[in-house]
Structure formats: structure tokens, C-alpha cells
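Hi everyone, sorry if this is the wrong subforum. Our group has a chain we'd like a structural model of before ordering constructs, and none of us has done structure prediction before. Sequence below.
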Amino acid sequence: MKNDMINIALPKGRLGDNVYEMFSRAGWRCPEIENPGRRLTFENPETGVRYFWVKPSDVAIYVEKGAADIGVAGKDILLEYSPDVYELLDTGLGRCRMAVAAPKNFREDLKKTLRVATKFPNIAKRHYSSLGRDIDIIKLNGSIELAPILGLSDVIVDIVETGATLRQNDLEVFDTLFEISARLIANKSGYRFKREKINMIKSSLSALKGENND
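Answer:
Right subforum, don't worry. Here is the predicted structure as C-alpha cells:
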């Protein structure tokens, strides 16, 4: 029955590929997704799962609104948008950190409003509010590192993985806000009605994560 299908939103890109591989190894393989063609949804009636790819920042929306029963989203997305979902499991994938970075010679003038360039305005506002710091948020969608180089901002708040891009542009991390990884999330209503199947998926992923950490 199609109504018994668990709809799973996966983030497009490298992270999504790793997430699907984890689902596949945990017993939730879907051959259709491995030969996608022009299809947008991919089903495996034997295991009762239906996958679809969406923009990483949209995963939480699909899950919150019920178009997906479960999905995998970065902790950065969950903290930025605060979707009304259940967070079931830290998959351990996509590890990185949210950080404040600036030019190496930067010295903060506490008497001036700090100009902060970021893709994550809510996270940045909460962080600096907790410090009692006046800031001017500059919302950007790409090339965040360029902002302090060209004098558009004093600092940036962004995801840092290896730090290579920062180093190549004479920037450095001044503060780490929190660690990030990909989380399994569930729609609250869907979880009530499909709790048993969703918990099976969660348990199988959790067991696989445990093997990877051994």
C-alpha cells in the first residue's frame, strides 16, 4: 500500500549521497534512486520507502509540512529555521562547525557596531545577543569570505569544514559557535501514525553509526 510508504527527503549533493549510502547499508536500499533518469521520486515497495532529493535547506520544510515523514538535515539548518519537527538521531555525517571568522589582523572595536556577513542571520543574531553586542547583519547567499576582504563586513558567521578557503584568503577562525552534523528528523504527525516503521529506520541507522564509531 502506498499509504504505508515512508517518504524520505534527502539533501542534494555530496552529503545526500553519503546519507543515502548509510540508509542503503542499513537495509533501506532503493535501486530506482541509483539509476534516476528524469524521475523525481524513487520507491522500493519491498522495504516500503520512497526517497526524493531536495535542496538541503528545504529538507526541514518538507518534513515540517508533512510532504516527507522523515528527512536528514544539518544542525545548522535546524538552528537557523527552528522547524517544528522531532530530531531523532545524529547520523554523524557531514561534520563541520559554525564559526566566526575575520581577517588575521582584525581587532574588534567594541565601541562600534559590528558588521556581520552571513547566510545564517538568526544564528548570528542569537550569538551576539547573548554577548550583548550591537551588530549589523549583512545577509548573503554566497562567497561569504569575500565580504571582509572587500570591506563589506568586519567578520563572517559561516560553516567551516577544513578551513582551507579561509586560509587561502588570509582569514582565520576567531570563535566556534557549535559543532554541526546531519540529523534524522521526523514530521510530528507522521511519527505518531508511523512510529513503528520510523523507529525501525532510526534503530538500523543508529546501529550502523555505532559500527562506524568502533
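For your construct planning: The chain has a mean pLDDT of 93. Residues 73 and 182 are 5 Å apart (CA to CA).
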